[in-house]
Design goal:
By secondary structure, this protein is mostly helical. It has helices spanning about 25-35, 35-45, 50-60, 65-75, 100-145; strands at about 50, 80-85, 90-95. Helices cover about 60% and strands about 10% of the residues. Strand 2 and strand 3 form a beta hairpin.
Length: about 140
């Protein structure tokens, strides 16, 4: 029997792959693996092991605390393996687990899609921004400003 927080495949909607309810396990996993810091850590650990300091140096803008939290969460989810070497000063290495590597492949497909469509997205954004600016100008005229 699945836990109450396991929300996939309801009788009402077999096509639904994940649930929008906060307690849904699938939603919680997606929230974790799709956040910007997790995506960057997973990308950097593809096919190589890195130390904490190397990861921090490579990820622009991440704090030491946020990197620690992200790595712990990814380790808890079974996506990252942490190895502590008994040396002074302590050395800790991080690498993707086999499951983490499969997630990297999925993320790479998303990055490829983004690269393929970035020009279209930029054009759509510019078009949207122009329409918004025109609507705001028209509203100001109607308001007598």
């Amino acid at each position: 029997m699945k836990s109450l927080s396991h929300c996939t495949g309801t009788d009402d909607d077999q096509a639904r792959q994940w649930d929008t309810r906060e307690g849904c396990e699938v939603r919680q996993i997606l929230d974790r693996v799709a956040d910007k810091w997790s995506l960057l850590v997973i990308a950097l650990l593809d096919r190589r092991t890195l130390r904490f300091t190397e990861l921090r140096r490579e990820i622009d803008g991440i704090s030491q605390r946020m990197l620690t939290v992200t790595l712990r969460q990814l380790e808890r989810d079974g996506l990252v393996h942490r190895t502590v070497h008994p040396v002074v000063p302590p050395r800790v290495d991080y690498q993707l687990t086999p499951m983490g590597s499969t997630l990297h492949n999925t993320i790479q497909a998303l990055v490829t899609w983004t690269e393929d469509h970035q020009d279209e997205i930029a054009a759509a954004r510019a078009d949207y921004d122009q329409r918004q600016a025109e609507a705001e100008s028209a509203q100001m005229v109607m308001d007598g400003v």
